[in-house]
Amino acid sequence: PASPPDWHARAAGLQVDGRAVIDGQRQDAADGATFDKHSPIDGRRLGAIARGQAADIDAAVRAARRAFDDGRWSRQAPAARKQVMQRFSAAVLAAADELALLETLDMGKPIAHALAVDIASTARTLAWYGEAIDKIYDEIAPTPRQALALITREPVGVVGAIVPWNYPLIMTAWKLGPALAAGNSVVLKPSEKSPLSALRLAEIALEAGLPPGVLNVVPGYGHEAGEALALHMDVDALGFTGSTRTGRRMLAYASQSNLKRVYNELGGKSAFLVFDDCRDLDRAAHTVADSVFFNQGESCNAPSRVLVQRGIADALAERITARAARWQPGDPLDPRTRMGAVVDAGQLRTVLGYIDAGQAQGARLLSGGRQARTETGGCYVEPTVFAGVHNRMTIAQEEIFGPVISIIPFDDEADAIAQANDSVYGLQAAVWSGGLDRAHRVARALKAGTVHVNQYDEDDITVPFGGVKQSGNGRDKSLHAFDKVTELKTTWIRI
Ligand code: NAD
């Protein structure tokens, strides 16, 4: 990787193009409106971004529909779509430095993580779905009559995608991978807090051979461009990733418009259970700290509720606090930095507000708790650990989306399960125990889309990702993601 001054020099020379990508062209908003985007790393102005409105969304949906109907992508042989997806993936890797820089400047994550995780994972996702598409077979039903009943999958048509700012490229790739590989056209609305990388990605897709109109990206605010996309009468399915509050609205928009299919990937407050027969307390502590503080705590699946058996609570807390020291915020453009800036001043205030609430409600602050690097003009928070938390406290119930760990004691297995499931969320959970029977029993009892046993950091595009309860009803990743962007069609043939 380049040395720190190189990244600063590149950042200083960066020319941001904030125009939408519609029908293969860069375009201003129809009324010329823009909004200013600033970087959370030091407050610098990055540029003017097109402020998409209903007219721009409508133009993008029309382009997507035309592209779908003309069949240049939707009716291409799977092997041909696969080639383009693979070129697209390779082009993402070729543009790794540029995309990583956009990601870091836009939302504050360390450049080293943007390169190693965000870019790598985005490229792998696109290639993996491209690779999958010519290996999926349709079905023939075993009907009792003299007939063939073919059950085939068809692309739904125009897929709308609305994504958050915490992993702008990865969240985009999770929506694009299956939707494009299956032959759909897409209109994507990135978060107003992190629109830059998705706009560049749309250009890269065109350069890789994706026909114009198949992927359109319209930046703008949620209540303007986002709402217009979710309400549009010609969008067949809507993939949403974001907060539970906004996910609720997506279902309302669908019911107010054309009953489009909505698949929601929402918030989390994942529980990490450590029993006193845990064989490696050091590793448990390191895994918690590393999983929560990675990406400044802005991960939907961060295991931010640590439930620990009372007898080992102090020992675990001590180890987590020691590990937290390794996550001091630094300059995101320095490749040695592990923790960067939170996404903006509003998020900074939200996180500090939760830390105040934790103290006011009687939780014990073991480390961190303050704003950091104030001299930079950026939005930094110290890695923060609370012990003695009660599961009904605000910091244990609400998603903080910042670098804050809450350690909550439990008495026995039943108490651990009850507290873990006492949440409106159900995204992920972990069980750390040396007992095989206990690990299985507890994993089965936990209400979560994913349960980790004696680990947390494994993840791969091959497995589904999604939640239960108010964490959503979708499943991104894996072959199961095709279910959301395809329709089953039955064709009876008399023989
Ligand atoms: P958010 O709900 O505020 O915004 C998400 C997206 O929705 C943005 O693009 C925003 O502009 C848009 N939006 C907002 N209001 C809208 C409206 N009225 N109509 C249409 N669109 C609207 O969420 P956020 O703050 O960007 O992201 C953080 C949340 O995302 C957290 O809750 C996090 O847990 C969740 N998340 C979930 C997953 C997952 O896979 N389950 C992954 C990443 C993030």
From TrEMBL:
The keyword Oxidoreductase applies. Coiled coil: none annotated. Keywords: Oxidoreductase. InterPro entries: Ald_DH/histidinol_DH (IPR016161), Ald_DH_C (IPR016163), Ald_DH_CS_CYS (IPR016160), Ald_DH_N (IPR016162), Aldehyde_DH_dom (IPR015590). Residues 31-490 form the Aldehyde dehydrogenase domain. CDD domains: ALDH_GABALDH-PuuC. Transmembrane segments: none annotated. It comes from the Bacteria. PANTHER family: ALDEHYDE DEHYDROGENASE-RELATED (PTHR11699). This is Aldehyde dehydrogenase.
